[in-house]
Fold:
Amino acid sequence: MRKYEEIQKIYAEFGDEMAPNYAISKECHDFILSVLENGKTILEFGSGVGTEILCQTHKVISVEENINFVGRHPSTYIHAPLKKLKDELLEKYSPATSWYDPEIIDKKLNGKEPMSYDLILVDGPAYAGGRGGFYENLNLFDTSKIIMFDDIEREDDRRIFNMVVEKLGRPTKIIESPGNTQTGVILTEEFKHLKD
Structure:
């Protein structure tokens, strides 16, 4: 694992160029640091370079579909392969066809030894998986926490973010990053003063 100073140097040098490498933007990372004390726990969907960055200051639970990414970083991994969406949801979330297996997630997060977390970061799944499954399975998560959706400059991801916002009825903030990447934040009462 790289030292925190090395990670900060990478961000300083490459900043907006990191997003294509499956990393959250520097602006997204800075926001997390501003609202979440060091040592608190982040539940993230999708794992990559960003996981290593987050693990420097926080505990991380990573829901990951690709077995090749499981264990790469000092996170607590939940390996949840993609599962095809129910037929009646395919048209609603097209072109996405799948999401993480919700039964695995439920068992690991809410089972005999429930896992707690302080912030949710939705940054996956990739490829055929979309984020509609997150909306369909909101009941599995503690939605009283700050929820962040990365990559909402993409139309499909913005739509799911908006659906979750409407369902939860909470204020939002959009984090703009160089390279036209955007992260949507669903704020808690404590941080509603940060809303756009």
